Amino acid sequence: MSQPPLIDSRRHAVFLDFDGTLVDLVDDPSAVVIAPAALARLEALRAELSGALAIVSGRRIADLDRFLSPLRFAAAGVHGLERRLHPDGAVERLAGPETLDALRAALAPTLLAESRLTLEDKGTALVLHYRTAPDLKDRAEQAMTEATQGRDDLVVMLGDNIVEVHPAGMDKGVAVAEMLQQPPFAGRVPVYVGDDTTDEFALRHVRDNGGVSIKVGTKESVAAHRLADVGAVHHWLGAAT
Ligand SMILES: O=P(O)(O)OC[C@H]1O[C@H](O[C@H]2O[C@H](CO)[C@@H](O)[C@H](O)[C@H]2O)[C@H](O)[C@@H](O)[C@@H]1O
């Protein structure tokens, strides 16, 4: 995998993952921080791209807004189950939290028994976190498998020290493909940057459709290009032409 080409602000639409791409991974999911200088660079880049810059994340858009405050960006949140095409627009939700009520109940005994496993409830998705208890990886995956037994309407995804469940039929690849049909992204060449397994859906879509696919870090990937870490991502974003 090679170094990525520089962003061409006249031609490209830029889609950026959040955790592990724009911010370093930390133990507490609520404790991620973006440097003010990096935030200012993102804002400048969005203007140069005539708005064609979006965050594509497993996070809720409300959480992204909090981390990126005072800025707001176009975004696909919860792996595409939430959408906002324009920073000042309303968030569109493609599923409601009630879909996961039975799962909340089914996971409760495991959470009671294993206090080192934590649940992040994103409404339309549930996440079991085990970063601070890596020995509980199998236990978390087993609990999620058992809780989702017979639920073909749901999909379980393994991320970086997490196991996550949400309604089936949506992933970051579908989200990027759909956003590319709409202004300000339509007609531009997609660039996608991401670090995790859930980014592979989008990296594959972009790679197969003439775009620029960029993996962050050393994990295996379908991407054509690589950047070493979060610092390298911000450096590269700042070099856009
Ligand atoms: O799609 P992303 O923007 O990369 O979001 C994926 C998940 O990110 C968060 O979890 C990850 O980051 C946490 C903070 O650094 C870390 O503690 C955790 O181990 C990582 O998996 C977020 O909490 C999840 O909801 C997102 O799905």
TrEMBL record:
The organism's place on the tree of life at top rank: Bacteria
Key words, A-Z: Hydrolase, Magnesium, Metal-binding
GO biological process: trehalose biosynthetic process
Enzyme class: hydrolase
The keyword Iron-sulfur is assigned to this record: no
Function: Removes the phosphate from trehalose 6-phosphate to produce free trehalose.
Name of the molecule in the record: Trehalose 6-phosphate phosphatase
